[in-house]
Amino acid sequence: NAGVTQTPKFRVLKTGQSMTLLCAQDMNHEYMYWYRQDPGMGLRLIHYSVGEGTTAKGEVPDGYNVSRLKKQNFLLGLESAAPSQTSVYFCASSFEIGGSSYEQYFGPGTRLTVT
Amino acid sequence: KNEVEQSPQNLTAQEGEFITINCSYSVGISALHWLQQHPGGGIVSLFMLSSGKKKHGRLIATINIQEKHSSLHITASHPRDSAVYICAVIKTRGGSEKLVFGKGTKLTVNP
Fold first, then answer.
1. Alpha-carbon Rg of chain B, whole angstroms?
2. Which of A74, B11, B49, B107 is spaced 20 to 30 A from B87 at the CA atom?
3. Residues 6+ away with beta carbon under 8 Å from A82
């Protein structure tokens, strides 16, 4: 049982390049989330999904797109990377009961640098 | 003003001391999380609570919904407790729940 995994762990991009971050969970969780963590700021929600085929915007969605084609995977895409997207990205998942989410399980993080 | 405020920002303690970290929030919530982020970066959920008190080992979390305040206590602190402790609240909007995070409290426990 691997929990929540993220690929890759580190990446350096040049401005304008694109990339996709992959999050996978093997706990059959309905809810999945993408966060970014920047120095001096708390974790901020980028996008989230409440089930396969659904996505919704979080607090800081601009410059990112997501897809949840399979229940166990949640992809975060950067179409044209900018230096402001240099951050540590965390994926999380949680189960839900009656429409409420519960304890969130976090992946190990992806450190992205955009030069 | 942030919706979730933690205090103190930094805390240094000697091994064995009793530690309290505070979290105040300004919005209506359905529940509150306490998370621990290790020096290596990994994040672990410690508690989720919506009322009263929860205890796990040396960790105790309390919440007062009327006062919009929660505390995380660590009894008999140990250097391995050194980490960033993060408070997060669940704001319910239209049936989908989102976490709003505090900036964290960095705890250092010296031997």
1. 14
2. A74
3. A15, A63, A114
